Amino acid sequence: MATLRLDDAAWNNRWRGRSTAEKVVLSAGLVAVALTAPGPAGGVIVLVVASLLACLWARVPVRTWSFAIAAPAVFIVLGTIGIVVTFGEPVGRVVVDMGPASVTQPSLWAGAVVALRALASAAAVMLLAATTPMPYLLASLGRVWGLRTLTEIATLVYRMIFSLLESQARIRETQTARLGYGSARTAIRSVGMLGAGTFIRAWTHSRRLGEGLAGRGYDGAWFALPSRRPVSGAFVAVALAIVAVCAGVSLVGPRWPV
């Protein structure tokens, strides 16, 4: 069965059995430090601490963690380009002159601030995602007033993703066995048929799922709600201490020049 690497890590790490609230305290604290740090030290320390906690304490595979961080890093870099490159009359010392566009020293610093804060915040959020299975996260959100319906929909979508991934893998395997990707022309045709087949299977699966739930008298109640896990005071204390140390490092470190 096709699986997602990050989801597989969430089910097989040492923090899986811990309460979601404990990990939310840690991740939210690290995000707060990353977003409010007055200098680069805050973002760097959050990025390093989140990586060490994930790989050494929670035992998330280093390769999986690297891919998890690399994915948002690509979008962060692309978004930062729009900040670094300015058009019109440059403000401040020009570092690179490209005619109508230019890169100035203030824009470089502004891009560095946004990129580092975004990457550190993404690492803190990934720490929660890589150590907590999605059903546990959705169950915790479902206990929040007003979010039950949304979490019900998200749970169904989550469960259908893997069924569709498996169906897609089987269709592609069949196409490959029949030389459906032997040339550019046949590959384009096979990709179109793959998308159409996956869409039809998703539509059919969702219709049958709705009919099955209606036939069983589904009234919006959770069928399998993960049990609440006790919150460890020791873990929360360690998490708050880690956040406090990161905040202290960010305060005593150098400031951004912008």
How would you describe the overall organization of this protein?
By secondary structure, the protein is mostly helical. It has two domains: 5-133 and 230-252, no CATH class; 140-215, no CATH class. Helices cover 71% and strands 5% of the residues. A three-stranded antiparallel β-sheet has the order 1-3-2. β2 and β3 form a beta hairpin. α2 (20-36) runs antiparallel to α5 (105-131). The model has no long low-confidence stretch (mean pLDDT 85).
- β-strand percent reads under 5%
What general outline do the C-alpha atoms trace?
Answer: globular
Number of helices: 9
Could you tell me the mean pLDDT? 85
The string of secondary-structure elements, in order, is: HHHHEEEHHHHH
- Strand arrangement within the widest β-sheet reads 1-3-2
Q: Terminal Cα separation, in Å?
A: 50 Å
Short précis:
With 258 residues, this protein is mainly alpha-helical. The chain contains 9 helices and 3 strands; from the N terminus they run H-H-H-H-E-E-E-H-H-H-H-H.
Supply database-style keywords.
single chain; 258 residues; mainly alpha; 2 domains; three-stranded antiparallel β-sheet; 9 helices
Task: Please specify the SSE layout and strand pairing.
Layout: H1 5-11, H2 20-36, H3 40-57, H4 62-84, E1 85-87, E2 94-98, E3 101-104, H5 105-131, H6 134-142, H7 148-177, H8 184-215, H9 233-252
Antiparallel strand pairs: 1-3, 2-3
Helix pairs in contact: 2-3, 2-5, 2-9, 3-5, 3-9, 4-5, 6-7, 7-8
